[in-house]
Amino acid sequence: TDTTEVAAAGKPAKGGLTGLKLAELKDVASGLGITGTAKMRKDTLVAAIKRTVERERSRRPAGSIDRRGLR
Question: Within 10 Å of residue 6's Cβ, how many Cβ atoms?
C-alpha cells in the first residue's frame, strides 16, 4: 500500500500518493518539512514523503495521531 493517504488540503487521496499530481505532492512534502522538491521527479518525491512519514511514525508512541491525521 502507499504509505499514507495524505493529500493536499488534508483529503484522502484515491490511489494514495501515486494518485496525486506533482504539484499536490510538493504541497504535501512542504507540509512535512521536505526541502529541495522543485527539481524532484514524481517517483523521487513519493519516496521522500514515504521516508519522512515512516520516520515520523517511528518517533511517536503507538496509536497516537498528529495534526495531519497520520498514525
Answer: 24
Question: Alpha helix (H) ranges present in 1-71?
Answer: 22-31, 42-59
What single-letter amino acid sits at 57?
A: R
C-alpha cell at 60: 511517536
Radius of gyration of the chain (CA): 11
Give the pLDDT of residue 68: 58
What is the Cα 31 distance to its own chain's centre? 8
Cβ proximity of 2 and 18 under 8 Å? yes
pLDDT tens per residue, range 22-56: 999 999 999 999 999 999 999 999 999 999 999 98
